[in-house]
C-alpha cells in the first residue's frame, strides 16, 4: 500500500479525542493527519488527500455536515461522521 492508501484524516475540535484516534490508528499502521475544525479539515484534506476522513459533526468554524458537503464537491473519499452519544436517561 502507498501512504495515500493508508492516510486517515481525523477532524475533531476536542484535542483529547484527536490524540486518542491518532494513537489507535497509528498503532494499526495508518498515517494520520489531524484538524481541529472543519475549515482546517478542508485544507488538510486538499493538502494530503487521505483515503478516509473521520469527522466530528459538532465543531466551530465549519461543522461536520458542512465539511462533508464540501468534500463531496471535490471527492468521493469515504467519510465517517462522529457524534457524541449520551446514555439513555431513565426517569424514576
Descriptive labels:
Rossmann fold, 92 residues, alpha/beta, four-stranded parallel β-sheet, 3 helices, 21% strand
Tell me about this structure.
The protein has 92 residues and is an alpha/beta fold. The protein has one domain: Response regulator (Rossmann fold, 3-Layer(aba) Sandwich), CATH 3.40.50.2300. The protein is 38% helix and 21% strand. The protein contains 3 helices and 4 strands. A 4-stranded parallel sheet has the order 2-1-3-4, with helices on both faces. Strand 3, helix 3 and strand 4 form a beta-alpha-beta unit. Helix 2 runs parallel beside helix 3 (64-74). It is globular and about 30 Å long. It starts with 6 loop residues before the first strand and ends in a 10-residue tail after the last strand. The mean pLDDT is 89.
Can you describe this structure in just a few lines?
38% of the residues lie in helices and 21% in strands. With 92 residues, the chain is an alpha/beta fold.
Amino acid at each position: 500500500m502507498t501512504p495515500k492508501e493508508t492516510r486517515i484524516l481525523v477532524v475533531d475540535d476536542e484535542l483529547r479525542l484527536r490524540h486518542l484516534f491518532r494513537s489507535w490508528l497509528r498503532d494499526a499502521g495508518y498515517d494520520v493527519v489531524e484538524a481541529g475544525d472543519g475549515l482546517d479539515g478542508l485544507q488538510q484534506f486538499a493538502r494530503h488527500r487521505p483515503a478516509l476522513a473521520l469527522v466530528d459533526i459538532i465543531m466551530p468554524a465549519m461543522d461536520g455536515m458542512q465539511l462533508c458537503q464540501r468534500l463531496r464537491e471535490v471527492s468521493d473519499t469515504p467519510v465517517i461522521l462522529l457524534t457524541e452519544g449520551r446514555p439513555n436517561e431513565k426517569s424514576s
